[in-house]
């Protein structure tokens, strides 16, 4: 786990994409969390990709991290995801609403 955080902090984007973006569920989850530590275009791009993950925990972690590092341009992607989220998926919907609030609060 600490390896992924170190790679994010050192901004080794290619290694992260190749090894972890399509890795195990645990690796993708850790990547989603670690990307919330560094505000950079590359972390936002990885988090947007992870928002579409088939695993609900990875999706929520990616959305939560986007709330920490994304800018106002990303809120449109978050709102699109919210509109496509089934009503019964309240956990993801609430995470998206909170992320949008966090991004807008920084503007």
Protein model, in words:
The protein is mostly helical and 107 residues long. The chain contains seven helices and no strands. The chain has helices at residues 2-9, 13-19, 25-34, 41-51, 56-69, 72-84, 90-106. Helix 3 (25-34) runs parallel beside helix 5, helix 4 runs antiparallel to helix 5 (56-69) and helix 6 (72-84) runs antiparallel to helix 7. InterPro entries: ARM-like (IPR011989), ARM-type_fold (IPR016024). It comes from Caproicibacterium argilliputei.
Just name the CATH architecture: Alpha Horseshoe
Q: Tell me the major beta sheet.
A: none
- CATH class bucket: Mainly Alpha
Q: How many strands appear in the DSSP assignment?
A: 0
Mean pLDDT: 94
SS-derived structural category? mainly alpha
Alpha plus pi helix count: 7
Shape: globular
Report Rg: 13 Å
Beta-strand level of the residues, as a percent range?
A: under 5%
The total domain count is: 1
The SSE string, one letter per element, is HHHHHHH
Low-confidence sequence ranges: none
Protein name: HEAT repeat domain-containing protein
Pfam family, one: HEAT_2
Give the structure's gist in a few sentences:
This protein is mostly helical and 107 residues long. It has seven helices and no strands.
């Amino acid at each position: 786990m600490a390896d992924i955080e170190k790679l994010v902090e050192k901004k080794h984007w290619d290694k992260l994409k190749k090894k972890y973006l399509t890795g195990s569920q645990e690796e993708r989850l850790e990547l989603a969390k670690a990307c919330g530590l560094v505000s950079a275009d590359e972390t936002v791009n990885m988090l947007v990709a992870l928002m579409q993950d088939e695993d609900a925990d990875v999706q929520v972690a990616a959305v939560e991290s986007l709330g920490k590092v994304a800018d106002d341009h990303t809120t449109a992607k978050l709102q699109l995801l919210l509109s496509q989220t089934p009503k019964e998926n309240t956990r993801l919907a609430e995470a998206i609403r909170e992320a949008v609030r966090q991004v807008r609060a920084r503007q």
